[in-house]
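To fix ideas, we reproduce below one chain and its tokenised fold.
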Amino acid sequence: MHYIGQLPDDSHFCFDGQPEGFFQGIELLYHNDFRKAITVYYHAMMRMAEVDRPDIIGHMDKIKMHNAFRPYLNEEEKWYTSLVEDTLEVILQKGGMVEVNTRGLYKTHPPFALSGEMGAGMHSPKKIPILLNSDAHHPDEIDSGFSYAAELLREIGFQSLRVLIDGKWQDKAFDKEGLIL
């Protein structure tokens, strides 16, 4: 999910770009109501999980990316945690899995699962399958953050990662060195 709305010039509001574009889009479309924009984002993600039913829900934490530049979201507020829980429930019910994107570890924000949202409550690590991805934009980044992410995932209770082997999604045990086959 990278787009949430259409700007006055008929272009789509992409919140994955530079911070100034993100904040301008929030101002133009949502009148600086970040709660509304975040709610639209997660509702769109829930609809995608229900209607399109992709195997993988990626960038679930993308809405938090610009928080490092100009804080606008308190991730511990009840309205936000409830919205995340609702989204995870839809993903769980539709049989999806969630990507843990390590790009945030070496760029700007902690990946979704590593910030604690998936390690608590009814969406314990045993319930929602996760896969590890670097979202590499350069060959040198292919495995960036994997060891660190694996350690953090183990600390909050994840025992397996979902991987594609011989054309089938499978859960495999892992440690900071990689998969345990």
